Protein 1
Amino acid sequence: MDLKGRWVEFAIKDIYFPAPEIVLAALHGDDLMAGEIIDVSDGSGGESAYAVVKVAALHEPLVVPIKGIRDR
């Protein structure tokens, strides 16, 4: 079976090289996500402060630096 030149589909999780995280960052690293802040770290509001954000499409909340969030 000759596969060269065929257009195919595959899951990002099945990528062997480079790491799937690198592919996602390259393709979608600047995309914006939206969610609700459900908790905030005890940081002093500077570089060490983080928000815990609930995103509807994900089962687990995300941890995002406060400096990287903005109001919708």
Protein 2
Amino acid sequence: MLRFWGWYERNYAVNVAFAACLFALQLVHLVWLTCQPLAQKITGTPLIDVAGPSRWAIVLVDYTEIPALVSVSLIYVNDLRKRFAWKPVLYLLFLNSQWLHIFWITDEFVVNTNEGAATALPAWLAYVAILIDYLELPVIFDTFRKMKVAVGEDRLGQFLREDLA
């Protein structure tokens, strides 16, 4: 395990940049969630109507959430490994609540509930799923902050000069 964390630290800038970019794709999903199902529920009319092939692009982006959750969780586990602080614990809770949403309260359930379709689960769970999705936002911003710090410390440049030369 020490070998893994040694490698992780040596390549921290690349790891955090990869995690941030992968996690940023979730912003596409959050925009869709806000502008279609949530806007439709609040105003009665969606701001956008994503259907057909475009809808499949949203689904594909949503599946990048799994590697994003793993890679971003490693950032906060690494922080906790160095020293205990409540912020990484909170962000790990925010991140890993996404598993509940991914495997139990799916986007399909949210859309079906919004459209008035009968479901086995109570309708209020759709809004719990939406809230869970929005818990990603502070973690996304913090991950980009961590990437900016790593780049500012020239850890990315150091990786590129040493490991790729």
Protein 3
Amino acid sequence: MRCPAHCPSCGSRDVKVEKIDYKMEVKHDGALRNLVISDLEIPICQSCGEKIFTEEVDAKINECL
């Protein structure tokens, strides 16, 4: 996965791809459900902690949904 050149939030160039368990709430059948995507590779700013949702990351999340 390509890593962005800088963080869109703080401008730091210290962005690294990490594997995380990404937790989210999804509405399904009229109810909110907790979903965990294990080992999601996502660029994260090492300065401010911002998760950077690239097209590749979005595609992986949509695939899991």
